[in-house]
Amino acid sequence: AQKVTQAQTEISVVEKEDVTLDCVYETRDTTYYLFWYKQPPSGELVFLIRRNSFDEQNEISGRYSWNFQKSTSSFNFTITASQVVDSAVYFCALSEVGGGSEKLVFGKGTKLTVNP
Amino acid sequence: DAGVIQSPRHEVTEMGQEVTLRCKPISGHDYLFWYRQTMMRGLELLIYFNNNVPIDDSGMPEDRFSAKMPNASFSTLKIQPSEPRDSAVYFCASSLSAGLNYEQYFGPGTRLTVT
Fold first, then answer.
1. Residue A11 burial class via C-beta count within 10 angstroms: exposed 0-12, middle 13-18, buried 19 and up
2. Are the Cβ atoms of B106 and A104 closer than 8 angstroms?
3. CA-based nearest distance A104→chain B, Å
4. Which of chain B's residues have a Cβ under 8 Å away from the Cβ of A37?
5. Per-residue pLDDT reduced to its tens digit, A74-109
6. How far is B73 from chain A (nearest CA, A)?
7. Nearest C-alpha in A relative to B97
8. Which among A9, A32, A89, B49 is least buried, having the fewest CB atoms inside 10 angstroms?
9. Helix/strand/coil for A7
């Protein structure tokens, strides 16, 4: 069965610090997608990134970067030079491909607080 | 472009009453998902549709919950009768199935409080 573990329940940093959010997943499939979503205090879920299991290249988007390592089943998310606006709950999610299923399994989320 | 639209945004009702949550997916998307978010259980998938047909309702907690999608632009999630433990934020999401490039877009959610 699919499972996503975000071991860090809450993280608190001071503005401009770098912070890494961990995500470890379990799946029996060889083909799957991994996602990160952001949920700011306003409550909506915002899509950040999608990775497929065949692409292990790390990705950088501005202050955000993602490190995908199949060997350790991890898909970690780093925010460089954090800002107060980054305060949110961040969710990692997993979807298997094939069999007509488009289901997402979410981790429990990591609440990030960036203090000024 | 309009995103996923949900109504109402907030609903307060008394135990035993019927509650109907509504969702309009992004135009052209062929998948629609209903999720529930609580502190205890996190984000849970309740049911999802493909081309208006329910594909997997294994997450629906019990017979008090039902969902319909009469057409490509509208879906409802109904709880009858409602109970205090149904209090949660209910999200609707939609996606365009495009092989390796799909992602789910979420609506703003409906915060349901059952007293």
1. middle
2. no
3. 8
4. 106
5. 999 999 999 999 999 999 999 876 555 567 889 999
6. 19
7. A102
8. A9
9. coil
Asked whether the predicted pLDDT for residue A26 surpasses 70, the reply is yes
Asked if B32 and B73 touch (Cβ cutoff 8 Å), the reply is no
Whether B48 sits inside 8 A of A47 (CB atoms) is no
Chain B residues close to A100, C-beta within 8 Å: 50, 55
pLDDT of residue A97: 65
Backbone angles phi, psi at B100, to 5 degrees: -85, 0
Nearest residue, CB atoms, A43 vs list B33, B55, B108? B108
Residue A2's pLDDT band (cuts 50, 70, 90): confident
**How high is the mean pLDDT of chain A?**
91
Q: What 3 state SS string does chain B have? A: CCCCEEECCEEEECCCCCEEEEEECCCCCCEEEEEEEECCCEEEEEEEEECCEEEECCCCCCCCEEEEEEECCEEEEEECCCCHHHCEEEEEEEECCCHHHCCCEECCCEEEEEC
Half-sphere exposure of A26 (CA within 13 A, CB side): 6
Collapsing DSSP to helix, strand or coil, A96 comes out as strand
Residues of A in contact with B108 (CB under 8 A): 43-44
Strands B31-38 and A24-26: unpaired
Interface size, chain A vs chain B, as Cβ–Cβ contacts under 8 Å: 50
d(Cα B93, Cα B95) in Å, to the nearest integer? 7
Tokens of A116: 């000024």
Q: Give the Cα separation of A52 and A34 in Å (integer).
A: 6
Interchain CB distance below 8 Å, B106 and A106: no
